[in-house]
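User: Can you help me understand a structure? I only have the sequence.
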Amino acid sequence: MTDRTNRKETPVLWLASASPRRQELLRNAGIPFAIKAANIPEVRAVGEDPEAFARRLAREKARTVWAQLPQAGEAFKVFVLGADTVVVTDGAVLGKPESAADAASMLRRLSGHTHEVITAVCLFAGERLEETQAERTRVTFDQLSEREIQEYVESREPMDKAGAYAIQGIASRWVKKIEGDYCNVVGLPVHLVFQMLRKYGGETFVASGPAGM
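Assistant: Let's start by predicting it. Here is the structure, written out as tokens:
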């Protein structure tokens, strides 16, 4: 029999993302969560500011998953965390590459330059709460040779990553400098997320070790 008292006191966090990288970051931080991907179109409006774009998608993901959840009791704290990451260089937003050629083109733009990674996160709980914040990190790449670019694309690592690279993977060899939150570049600014959770959910979001549901 379920202990309804404990159930009411324990918040449930739904991650509106199928990203294994975001899931791993939350688990490593000891933050319990469940997974429900939003699966929404990620299309930037003409002239939309990169951060505004990321914030909008984070909100839409959180709202979409919330609408799919069964109604919870007033005392039962349910939260949805939406997130979206964009890579910005010279004012251009680099999303996930659509092809190998697209990935190679993105890597050429990042080669030898400093770009910015913006991740927006939205903590949503229906009428009770909607808060969206964003983290920015600057990343400087070494100059990449055409051979390095082609071999990296052939590894397939870039294909589902914003900006066509994974800082925690093979691409780490080319990262000359990072200014800001490393986890933000991986896909989720863990410190920012934890501060938001602690603000609204209390210490009950904290686990003693790696977590997940």
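Now, to help you interpret it: The two ends are 20 Å apart (CA to CA). Residues 1-8 have pLDDT under 50 and may be disordered. Let me know which part you'd like to focus on.
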